[in-house]
Write a structure and sequence with these properties.
heterodimer; A: mainly beta; Jelly Rolls; 2 domains; 5-stranded antiparallel β-sheet; 50% strand; B: mainly beta; 6-stranded antiparallel β-sheet; two-stranded antiparallel ribbon; 1 helix; 11% helix; 42% strand
């Protein structure tokens, strides 16, 4: 549900329903509700229906961090017969990074996915990294657009995650549809503009949190989370 | 302090069992989308919805006796939490009435709400 009562005062509300939860899952949700004191304290919420990256449709946006030697050129052909692709070129003589850093727990399971194309056969590194651990996945790309991905959980309990690609010296690729999701496999690409799917000031929406024991060690619950947008 | 009665099986409740965790918070929302929040309850409290069916005559009588002794929602008692197994002190019945349905021989039902309090 999206409510837009006044400019600048919109709210986004998620209604989440869970069935057949284990006691551990139920306890984790209940503890989180109690730690937040219900709707009193805010917390970071990752929208399970959205792309976590900010400005995935504009790789020239300052939300993206890049090495000085990386040049970004918009208006390139993309895999959906449009011109939403971007040419990424490393003009330097060492590896260069093109990533985005988000304020989310590094230890969750994430999937980074994107479409890549290069003039000839090429190897590209995908990176997911927290403050103390990184995972680098090597993928092959060629003249055909290929959706590549890097997935997994880091053994890193930091509170930020960087994800993106590493270009080798002189390498040029076309990129489209960068997407990061807090799940073990990718879903369909969703373009984002000024906001991504990470909300750092979400709140429980109700003064009550109800868990129903439906059977032996089986629980269900329905609750709301809201945030200003 | 008295204790909430157990069924003949030793159980406190039957499935399905809703348990509510409550924390009253007042939120004042401003036109620019900002908000101010404050607690209007000192701590979180739990509530249990005890919906019981197919009770024997002795079980429903035991619950009625307990309700009468508690004077409805007036008196505190210890409640054995069916989920954690812990004894929760300072609980009360939430509403001062108890409806019993006698649906057959050895097949009565009732509904009670138990809430945790500060004591």
């Amino acid at each position: 549900m999206i409510l837009l009562p006044d400019p600048g005062a919109g709210r986004l509300l998620w209604q989440l329903a869970y069935q057949d939860l284990s006691p551990a899952d139920t306890e984790a949700l209940t503890n989180h509700y109690q730690t937040c004191r219900g709707p009193f304290r805010g917390f970071t919420f990752i929208d399970p229906t959205d792309n976590m990256f900010v400005s995935s449709s504009d790789l020239t946006n300052t939300a993206w961090g890049k090495s000085e030697s990386v040049q970004v050129e918009s208006g390139q052909a993309d895999p959906v017969n449009g011109t939403g692709g971007f040419a990424l070129t490393n003009t330097g003589e060492t590896d260069a990074y093109f990533t985005q850093t988000l304020p989310v727990p590094a230890s969750y399971a994430y999937t980074l996915s994107l479409y890549l194309q290069s003039a000839g056969a090429s190897i590209v590194k995908l990176i997911r990294g927290g403050p103390s651990e990184q995972q680098i996945t090597t993928v092959s790309v060629g003249p055909q657009w290929t959706r590549v991905l890097s997935s997994g959980a880091l053994n890193d309990y930091g509170t930020s995650l960087s994800a993106g690609i590493i270009l080798s010296a002189g390498q040029q690729v076309s990129a489209f549809g960068l997407q990061l999701e807090a799940q073990p496999s990718p879903s369909q690409y969703r373009a984002t503009a000024q906001t991504g799917g990470v909300y750092t000031e979400a709140h429980w929406s109700a003064n009550e949190f109800v868990v129903v024991a439906t059977g032996n060690e089986l629980f269900s619950t329905t609750f709301g989370i809201d945030t200003a947008i | 302090m008295p204790t909430f009665p157990l069924l003949s099986s030793g159980a406190v409740a039957q499935y399905s069992l809703p348990v509510l965790t409550g924390q009253a918070v007042q939120t004042i929302r401003f036109l620019d989308g900002a908000d101010q929040r404050y607690l209007i309850q000192g701590r979180t409290f739990r509530q249990w919805e005890i919906r019981l069916t197919l009770l024997t005559d002795s079980e429903i009588a035991q619950l009625q006796t307990f309700f009468t002794e508690q004077q409805g929602d007036y008196t505190k008692f210890d409640f054995p939490d069916p989920l954690s197994g812990q004894m929760i002190p300072n609980c009360r019945l939430l509403i001062p009435e108890m409806t019993c349905s006698y649906e057959g021989v050895g097949a009565s039902s009732t509904l009670l709400y138990v809430t945790e309090t500060n004591g």
